[in-house]
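Deviations from the work plan: none for this task. Representative record:
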Amino acid sequence: MDESTLLTNIWAGILAFAVLMYVVMDGFDLGIGVLFPVFGVGRERDTAMNSIAPVWDGNETWLVLGGGGLMAAFPLAYGIIMTALYPPLIAMLLALVFRGVAFEFRWRDPAHRHIWDIAFTGGSFIAAFTQGIMLGALLQGIHVEGRAYGGGWWDWLTPFTLLTGASVVAGYSLLGACWLNWKTEGETQNHARRLMRILAPVTLLAIIAVSVSTLFLGGEYVDRWFAMPAVLVTAQVPLIIAILTWRFARSLQRNYDLAPFVITLVVFGLSFVGLGISMYPYLIPNSITLQMAAAPASSQVFMLVGAAVLVPLILAYTAWSYWVFRGKVAHEGYH
Amino acid sequence: MFHDADALLLARFQFGFTVSFHFIFPSFSIGLASYLAVLEALWLKTGKTLYLDLFKYWLKIFAVVFAMGVVSGIVMSYQFGSNWAVFSDKAGPVIGPLMAYEVLTAFFLEAGFLGVMLFGMLKVGRRLHFFATLMVAVGTFISAFWILSVNSWMQTPTGYAINADGQFVPAAGWAAIIFNPSFPYRLVHTVIAAYLTTALAVGAVGAWHLLRDSKQEHARKMFSMAMWMAALVAPVQIFVGDMHGLNTLEHQPAKVMAMEGHYQSHPDGAPLILFGIPNDAEQRMEHAIEIPKLSSLILKHDLDAPLNGLDTIAPENRPPVKVVFWTFRVMVALGFLMLLLGACSLLARARHRLYDWRWLLRFALVMGPSGFIAVIAGWMTTEIGRQPFTIYGLMRTADSVSPLAAPAVATSLIAFVIVYFAVFGMGTWYLLKLMSHAPHTREPDLPNAPVHAAGITPAPALAAAGTKEPGHG
């Protein structure tokens, strides 16, 4: 592997890490938003929302790093992908506006709190759904002409992308329920546990459905999954998922607080590795490889110096911030 | 129904609309974060609860402003790709890394410490909490540093080469790109603008409450602090603005011609056009009221110095005068009004009438939004003044746009307009509601703090602060 290929792969790895961080961290935030209507007005909702109030902004910053990093390291792909996914992207951005301001606004206007609760749920749901759609639209391929998007503005909408959209909603909801099981107690926690019993099998089915459908998208995916050395990983996946499902069921039965959340994170991580195997070495399937889209080495090196120092630092103070707000969130304490 | 030209115009409207809306929030939160750090430092130093009350009062306002800044900012980080894909592809290797550094050094810093700043006072101890406030304030400044470097590079590009794919790539080291010729001036001018904007907003809130009760201790303190800021910083800002203008004259003369309304060249001293109606179609100024030779004196420090007009610029490279001419005048006029306010406050202070000279209080109240208006007017001046280019002199706006269908952009533009006015309109209403309550002793905390169940040892602060947690009502 020559130097520029190595750099490009490192940057692909850093961006993949940023996206994974975003998916799991904003995943539970958005999941809580999606589940919001089933929680009781008043204490339950306030507790659920306040459990993420200090961290949602940091969680969402990984999304900005995903966008900014893609522009910096793979500018060609950034332009093409964002143009191709224009309608779901804009819908996601507007949805994030609603759910982001709801954190503050619902406290400022008790008379209209129910409206901001709807904004919070609607925004969270649309953001999760469109993120799933964008994932599916990328997997099913984007029509590229020269150095630009060559398709129409409805190409992203197919049964497959609706499936991936729904799957991400299910997965985020499961993460959200697991987070609440960890961070709350009493009625809210019991409520979260009941939801986990429904959402876990739904998420499992969704993962299987998306995996199988991906194989039907085209020959390349089949080859990549079942070629050496990827097959060494993919062959283990059914077994690992089976073990994790058993552990999850057991942790739920024994009323563990943290374990279900951690197991769900591992499942998300595994699914993400699966996506990586499907995509590599392409950034846009079958048309733009990482190498083709890569910024020059001088740009990548300049950023790598910063990222090598700053990303560990960011992880450290993010962990500290979570540590400060550790423990169960109580119901009482408002005036 | 739609053509390519419509798609371009719609994309420009959308970017201008979303960036202008977004810019309002950071121009407030940059100043407010620093103000909060100062208030907390004064509280820690003097132990006076007055400062803690003011800190808590403005923290609630900051939380709302910051949330609006975050959500409108995420839109910007994706809009480069969605609407300006060709620009992103070509300029990405140069400006992308600077924006990535903004995320890594600023956004994470702000977001990582914001939770502790908003909700962590009783959990981490006073010193650590002050550190968190400081990190948020520093983060807002670092953010301004990088994004203004990007913007300045687009205005005065240096240190680049163009590769085989037509991309701008770094060629002369990153310092040449980051510290491009207009960057130092733009950075200082913009950051001071943020401080001044905040001071005027804080001053107006203080004035509002003093008009109701001139003895209100908290209102007196914030009003006095704000008026010091206005008196000291407004003259500095006018001086810096002048230097920024001279820098623009050197690197982007066409922009200055548009600001001045100079369609024609003036070989022996150009007049300062105070007012007039720019006519871009016929490239002439109608009904001009002008002071002979003053423009040459300001820009060249010589009454008879020749100044070129837009007639020396190729027609396809001329910026639209009719917008830039007016936005520039709005900014300058507001700047001088700020100077006047600062001067009046010094006079009132000298005569011990600062808190009960009602005309001063009314003046300060009316000037409350002036900073925001001046910031947007200045931003429009510099952004529209560099048209028709995205990368000045090198890449045209028309060549930067994504190959999107016009109906797609029209739909998104309508959606942005509706959502922004509705959501940020409500946000502004909530801000005004918060501001309309007078700050008072034992100012309550934010209502949405995650209050923790028993079992977690409270941080030392709880004991040290010696007060009952106000959140437990």
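The longest strand of chain A covers residues 282-284.
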